[in-house]
Q: What sequence folds into this?
């Protein structure tokens, strides 16, 4: 079964035709319905639900819109998600996870990842449960101390699974990366010629250049979880490692100025963009109209030799219509 992950903006296009009758979105809406009827799967993720929750808060609990979005999200996906409280995500494996339940989980600090069961932590091998949680608390405190913006902390870590804690840490790392982003251009690590070359690069060739790869280790050390290119998409890989890998590769591309988002408001929304790319990596196709997100994701998946295809809505309609 072919799985197609559409980001939140594509979903809103679909919703606006279904709910508001906006003709401009008729083609994508009809195509999704046709493919769904033919057996294609359009899984949702907590990232969709998080954006609906932000919409709910902005509307001051007006149920007329956000609740309809949640309902339509459940319909379009058949309530199949790339992650659940009980099943660890694997390539092409999606499980039933009620969208209302996911929404309730998103509204508390633990999030949808809270129930994930991580059976082995190679860097904590053999340590007691108490020592593990003490280690996690130190890491969280270290990141939060460097953040400029306030963060809602999960409270008692012992009430969370290791997977939930590690996902929360990866989110904090990404926020820190946005706030404290290294700019290799301003630091003089890149020449004007290299900067110009990066800006013009095809996404599939970004990591083919030695001067780019030489900078990569500088953002992948110390206390960070880091990434493991060899394990990406491997059965040995666990969710938080994939999350951390993508977080820091997106951070790296911003650091070298490749398809970087300069709009401050959009930069804050990058947290959700990266989450969509993460969950989309478990699908066959990722559809997004965000040009910067699309090019960065193409570059990263190419570097990791990951098979998920990344395309725009227009390309999707052309290829599947």
A:
């Amino acid at each position: 079964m072919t799985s197609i992950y559409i980001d939140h903006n594509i979903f809103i296009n679909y919703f606006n035709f279904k709910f508001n009758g906006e003709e401009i979105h008729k083609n994508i809406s009809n195509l999704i319905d046709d493919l769904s009827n033919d057996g294609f799967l359009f899984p949702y993720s907590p990232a969709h639900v998080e954006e609906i929750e932000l919409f709910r808060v902005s509307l001051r609990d007006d149920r007329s819109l956000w609740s309809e979005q949640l309902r339509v999200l459940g319909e379009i996906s058949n309530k199949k998600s790339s992650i659940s409280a009980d099943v660890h995500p694997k390539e092409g494996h999606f499980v039933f996870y009620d969208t209302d339940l996911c929404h309730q989980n998103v509204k508390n600090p633990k999030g949808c990842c809270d129930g994930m069961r991580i059976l082995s932590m190679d860097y904590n091998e053999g340590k007691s449960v108490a020592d593990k949680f003490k280690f996690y608390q130190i890491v969280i405190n270290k990141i939060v101390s460097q953040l400029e913006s306030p963060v809602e902390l999960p409270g008692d870590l012992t009430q969370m699974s290791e997977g939930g804690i590690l996902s929360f840490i990866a989110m904090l790392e990404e926020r820190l990366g946005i706030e404290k982003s290294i700019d290799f251009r301003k630091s003089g690590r890149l020449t004007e010629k290299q900067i110009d070359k990066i800006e013009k690069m095809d996404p599939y060739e970004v990591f083919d250049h030695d001067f780019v790869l030489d900078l990569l280790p500088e953002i992948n050390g110390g206390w960070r979880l880091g990434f493991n290119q060899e394990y990406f998409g491997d059965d040995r890989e666990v969710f938080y490692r994939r999350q951390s890998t993508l977080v820091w590769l997106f951070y790296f591309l911003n650091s070298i100025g490749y398809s970087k988002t300069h709009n401050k408001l959009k930069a804050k929304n990058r947290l959700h963009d990266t989450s969509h790319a993460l969950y989309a990596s478990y699908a066959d196709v990722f559809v997004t109209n965000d040009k910067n997100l699309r090019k960065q994701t193409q570059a990263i998946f190419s570097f990791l030799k990951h098979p998920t295809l990344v395309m725009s809505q227009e390309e999707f309609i052309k290829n599947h219509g």
